[in-house]
Design the sequence.
């Protein structure tokens, strides 16, 4: 096993020095150039940032400089923490206060955003770092002190309390995840990954880490291109993209624009969905548009990357929920019932997950780390460590994982215990349904349904009555022309909750 993710980069550079690694519409980097830039940046950062400390990356979100900055931070023996410079200043300051970085690495736009915060963390200008002298002796000394258990990244995700959580992943985590991911998908070096996910979002890990380990090429789609489906489709064609990983909401938005025709993307070989459950009707549109592609659904989060993945069959019952594949060979899932005991086979339970790439905890947040990571939850006498996902699911007879939703989506309504995910699954099967979700107003014991698409309230009610018992039917219906989304293109449930007041 490799001791550092830098070994993947260096092996690929020795083998394919002149191959393009990352490119956007403005510039490109061969693997040799990427390695050289990263080493220069690492040499510069090492003069400011002590070993094993976090470095905040404040760079233009759709620039390949982010990749040089990430690997440069690793050469300095530090952990990178990419951040969104377009977020409100108050939010950015909160994240930096939580991170307590030893340095901030920023381009011109990032430096401007940082200057407005009035903080005194040392600032390293990206332009100066990439042109610094490559101090080979210093970098060699850093590598001699390195451990496979050194922190590699801190990726922030929203917290239920309103305070973001910084998930810590180590080189050990990334090395194991990379090997497992390349194996299960059958990735190859001749691929062209189309990156749409921002680098501060965990979905982007697939587009940054696997390609470098293989010697593949990554094209960064232009900023905001998802809002212009015709342009996005043209980009995928012109750049010969073979692999596209996005949230279901992102895939659905392209379908809703009506730009996909059967067979229009013949070069696509991998379509990968994550983050939410994907409805069958829009997925079928994508399958028809990509006749040579396999379509994959995976289950994961910022804390666990992905722990189950599966290829979706081209034949599916439109009214049923899609499974998310089988657990990885090195992943272990416990299903616990409401009493904390192991659920019976096939029965739903809260999922506790263990794998070599489960995050090590939340950065500078021991209380939430202790609450979310547990050792030996069944008290069997061995020290396996699990992440408490908060999701409910079960394994089907064929070994595939079925995820029903969040544990807090289990409600008691009209005296009956039920799962809101079952209502959402029924809604996805209705003709004309585009997007939406179901939320529960506990104070008033009311189920709210938010949706976009052709059906009106009368049609929704009639359709749901055919598959759900009365107590599971929503009490309030709100039709929206367009659903609100988070920066990662998931349905923004917090915004919808405000509409329930």
Sequence:
């Amino acid at each position: 096993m490799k001791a550092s993710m830098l070994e993947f980069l260096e092996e690929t550079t020795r083998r394919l020095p002149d191959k393009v690694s990352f490119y956007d519409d403005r510039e490109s980097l061969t693997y040799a150039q990427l390695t050289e830039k990263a080493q220069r940046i690492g040499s510069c950062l090492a003069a400011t940032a002590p070993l094993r400390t976090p470095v905040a990356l404040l760079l233009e979100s759709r620039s390949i400089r982010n990749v040089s900055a990430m690997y440069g931070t690793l050469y300095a023996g530090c952990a990178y923490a990419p951040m969104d410079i377009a977020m409100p200043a108050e939010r950015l300051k909160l994240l930096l206060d939580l991170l307590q970085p030893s340095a901030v690495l920023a381009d011109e736009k990032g430096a401007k955003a940082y200057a407005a915060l009035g903080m005194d963390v040392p600032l390293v200008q990206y332009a100066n770092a990439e042109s610094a002298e490559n101090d080979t002796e210093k970098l060699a000394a850093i590598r001699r002190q390195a451990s496979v258990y050194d922190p590699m990244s801190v990726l922030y995700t929203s917290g239920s309390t309103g305070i973001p959580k910084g998930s810590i992943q180590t080189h050990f985590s990334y090395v194991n995840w990379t090997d497992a991911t390349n194996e299960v998908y059958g990735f190859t070096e001749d691929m062209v990954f189309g990156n749409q996910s921002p680098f501060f979002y965990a979905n982007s890990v697939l587009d940054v880490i696997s390609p470098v380990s293989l010697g593949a090429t990554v094209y960064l789609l232009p900023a905001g291109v998802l809002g212009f489906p015709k342009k996005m489709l043209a980009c995928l064609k012109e750049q010969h993209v073979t692999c596209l990983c996005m949230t279901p909401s992102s895939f659905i938005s392209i379908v809703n624009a009506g730009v996909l025709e059967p067979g229009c993307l013949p070069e696509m070989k991998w379509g990968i969905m994550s983050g939410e459950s994907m409805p069958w009707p829009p997925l079928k549109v994508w399958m028809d548009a990509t006749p040579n592609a396999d379509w994959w659904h995976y289950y994961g989060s910022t804390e666990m990357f992905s722990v189950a993945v599966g290829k979706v069959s081209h034949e599916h019952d439109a009214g049923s929920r899609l499974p998310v594949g089988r657990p990885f060979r090195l992943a272990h899932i416990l299903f616990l019932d409401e009493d904390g005991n192991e659920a019976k086979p096939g029965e739903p339970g809260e999922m506790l997950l263990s794998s070599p790439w489960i995050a090590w905890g939340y950065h500078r947040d021991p209380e939430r780390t202790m609450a979310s990571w547990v050792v030996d939850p069944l008290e069997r006498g061995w020290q396996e460590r699990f992440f408490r996902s908060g999701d409910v699911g079960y394994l089907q007879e064929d070994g595939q994982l079925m995820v029903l939703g969040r544990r807090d989506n289990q409600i008691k309504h009209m005296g009956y215990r039920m799962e809101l995910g079952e209502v959402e699954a029924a809604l996805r099967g209705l003709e004309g349904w585009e997007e939406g979700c179901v939320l529960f107003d506990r104070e008033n014991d009311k189920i709210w349904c938010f949706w976009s698409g052709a059906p009106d309230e009368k049609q929704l009610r009639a359709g749901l009555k055919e598959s759900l018992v009365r107590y599971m039917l929503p009490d309030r219906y709100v039709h929206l022309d367009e659903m609100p989304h988070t920066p990662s293109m998931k349905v923004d449930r917090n915004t919808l909750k405000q509409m329930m007041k």
Remarks:
- The mean pLDDT is 92.
- Residues 31-45 form the longest helix (15 residues).
